[in-house]
Write a structure and sequence with these properties.
The protein is 32% helix and 29% strand. It contains five helices and eleven strands. The longest helix is centred in the middle third of the chain and has 19 residues. The radius of gyration is 17 Å and the shape is globular. The protein binds manganese (II) ion (MN). Manganese (II) ion binds next to helix 5.
């Protein structure tokens, strides 16, 4: 039987490194719902450890301060435990690092969830931050989809390119195999809008990843997720 080789298509023609060298490994823990992901390419090196049934503890260093801020509050409000060490070619820009951390986090959730038996599967939350109000709905369906509706007049928060939030969530949704809807109901300040989105995402993921004792097998009439 042919050994499974993981390769991901290059992001663009100019991203040669991606075409030639993209490897990853994982060693899911046998204890509890945890996962470790190592992801190393010519563009980024990422070590990530996730515990689903955590207490909101985080230790995050990605080299992108705004992403650290979002991952920290995501962990806290989702009651996960998360450790991330990422180094990337941020001298190019933050894009590779942000997207690849999204890929790694999605992969970690997928591994930690395992076969999804007894899982609530759906989760949603609406979270305000001052004038901003953002709703996130998650379905751990196995079908990757992202509906992204954050609109800001600015392109940046400080030095951080806001567009990268879209790329982060898309990468995460693809790797996790989740349907994620992000809807902005109100907002003005881009920091508030994105922060409300990550808090809502955290709470939605907290719900969706919890176990419901009434669920026998997986929550699907199809019998598989
Ligand atoms: Mn903040």
């Amino acid at each position: 039987m042919k050994k499974r080789v993981t390769s991901i298509a290059p992001r663009s023609r100019t991203s040669k490194a991606r075409a030639t060298s993209r490897t990853k490994g994982r060693a899911p823990s046998s204890r509890g719902r945890q996962a470790r992901v190592s992801r190393h390419t010519n563009e980024t090196n990422i070590e990530l450890a996730l515990t689903l049934d955590g207490s909101g503890r985080y230790d995050v260093a990605t080299g992108v301060p705004f992403l650290n801020h979002m991952l920290e509050l995501f962990t806290r409000h989702g009651f996960f435990d998360l450790q991330v060490r990422a180094t990337g070619d941020v001298e190019v820009d933050d894009h590779h690092t942000v997207e690849d951390v999204g890929l790694a986090l999605g992969e970690a959730f997928r591994d930690a969830l395992g076969p999804k038996t007894g899982l609530r599967r759906f989760g949603e939350a609406t979270v305000p931050l001052d004038e901003s109000l953002v709703q996130v709905v998650v379905d751990l369906s196995g079908r990757p989809f992202l509906a992204y509706d954050l609109k800001t007049r600015q392109h940046r928060v400080g030095t951080f390119d806001i567009e990268l939030i879209h790329d982060f969530l898309l990468a995460l949704a693809n790797q996790l195999g989740a349907n994620i809807h992000v809807r902005m109901l109100a907002g003005r300040n881009p920091h508030h809008i994105i922060e409300a989105a990550f808090k809502a995402f955290a709470r939605a993921m907290d719900l969706a990843t919890q176990r419901d004792p009434r669920v026998v097998g997986v929550l699907s009439t199809k019998g598989t997720l």
